[in-house]
């Protein structure tokens, strides 16, 4: 049987508004690659991200440009050299994983050399907003064990993190500044977070300015996100950060992400498994990274007004491995 590749653009409404330091959104626009080989079908979802110079049109064009490679039988490992890292390669890579799993009749985690995937405790995101609004959101989410708090809004951030702590006094707090702080204000922001018992700070400074962290003595462990994409960035990350956020849309798929996770652990870095705002189809491959991770942030579907059919199961702060009907 010959392979076929199909590309689709889909939109999923966000429940309310999702706001970070760079702006707000009310929908998640995703691009899905579907590869069929006889009766077997594999799917992969990606989220184009303007921060990395991507658009829906550019990602669709990249996937279409790889059509001959895919339909002529190119595999995941050859894909790493055929396409650059990014959302488009992620969609194809994850579709190839799913297809390989369906053809072999074994779960994707077995193909990855993992014994099993256990349910993992995931962060739940508190969107950036006014302190009182963030406190109210924290109250509603206070039963979730880990809250990821979006900051990066400048002078009001100490009040925001204090409000979240008031709303969720027992939760473990992770802060994501999304490059929103500046070096001359960093100590004040970190002191405010330290006062509220924050466990981890993600991307406090713009990626272009984070050399300042090399000699910086932070009271809270720091995690690289926008500063960290693949193994090529790992040496600089290890000099400036304590952890790395691995996202499939940054690494260009699960194949490269697994390599990065092993290399990051060897370099002494903690790992966060992260996501863009997408459906369960985007989260499912990332669950294979959870055995490597200290922190898991795969709450994308929880931020949507509706998810895909056969979506991931979320219960009591846990995210469960995908069913084969969804992926893998």
Description:
- The protein is of the alpha/beta class and 328 residues long.
- The chain folds into two domains: 3-108, Enolase-like, N-terminal domain (Enolase-like, domain 1, 2-Layer Sandwich), CATH 3.30.390; 120-319, Enolase-like C-terminal domain (TIM Barrel), CATH 3.20.20.
- It contains twelve helices and 14 strands.
- It has helices at residues 56-65, 67-71, 76-82, 87-104, 108-111, 131-140, 157-167, 186-195, 234-240, 248-251, 254-266, 280-286, and strands spanning 3-20, 23-37, 40-46, 120-121, 124-126, 146-150, 172-176, 200-202, 222-224, 243-246, 270-273, 295-296, 314-315, 318-319.
- The strands form three sheets. The protein has an eight-stranded parallel β-sheet. Strands 1-2-3 form a three-stranded antiparallel β-sheet. A three-stranded antiparallel β-sheet has the order 4-14-13, with no helix packed on it.
- The chain is globular.
- The two termini are 21 Å apart.
